[in-house]
Amino acid sequence: DALRARLNPHFVFNALNNLRALILEDPARARELVTRLSSTLRHALEHSQRDWTTLGEELAVVRDYLEVEQVHYEARLQPRIDVPDALAGARLPPMALQLLVENAIKHGIARTAGGGVLGIDASLHGGMLRVRVDNPGRLDDGEAGGTGVGHAFLRQRLERIGGRFALAEGEGRVVATLEIPQ
To answer: In DSSP terms, which residues pair with 121 in a beta bridge?
Structure first.
């Protein structure tokens, strides 16, 4: 419940303001933005009530979320997704990837002059799904420990099932990694 309730209100307000601007400027893009925003909000309300979702479902909503944010950040947000189709059925907690992407934008892209590449990749190693989100920037004080509500939820949830969550910084980038037993 706490994770579902934490959907960034600034994201919603920015999306609505961007929608308002697009209605007259580019009606087709405005319609697309409404569809993507609706999908993102529906996912936050419905899917997060399940214990598990698939990587394919989570990626679909993350792509919608990124499209909405792309209207706001334009060229400053450069998503790069490298996830093999074969991993679409892998399981992970709902909104886990969404949380990492939202944080990467909020703490990385938004705070970095000129923005940059937000990378998402996934792989399977020895029965463990590894999902990584990386972005330009630095860890804030306390951020490496995952003191936020979302980080605490992820860490607790993953530890109960033999997984883990980690944040690291290096070469001007922050990397968030989820490891989830399959």
So the answer is: 82, 132
Residues across the chain: 182
Which residue's structure tokens are 């490298």? Answer: 82
Spatial distance between the Cα atoms of 147 and 117, rounded to a whole number of angstroms? 25
Local mean pLDDT, 10-residue blocks, the chain (182 residues): 57 85 91 88 72 93 92 95 98 90 93 96 97 93 54 85 94 96 96
Specify the pTM. Answer: 0.83
Q: How far apart are the C-alpha atoms of 162 and 84, rounded to whole Å?
A: 23
Where are the alpha helices (H) located in the chain, listed in sequence order? 2-5, 9-25, 27-46, 55-73, 96-104, 149-160
Strand, helix or coil at 137?
coil
Q: Which residue has the tokens 């979702």?
A: 53
Q: How far apart are CA 33 and CA 16, in angstroms?
A: 9
Q: Are 182 and 90 in contact (CB under 8 A)?
A: yes
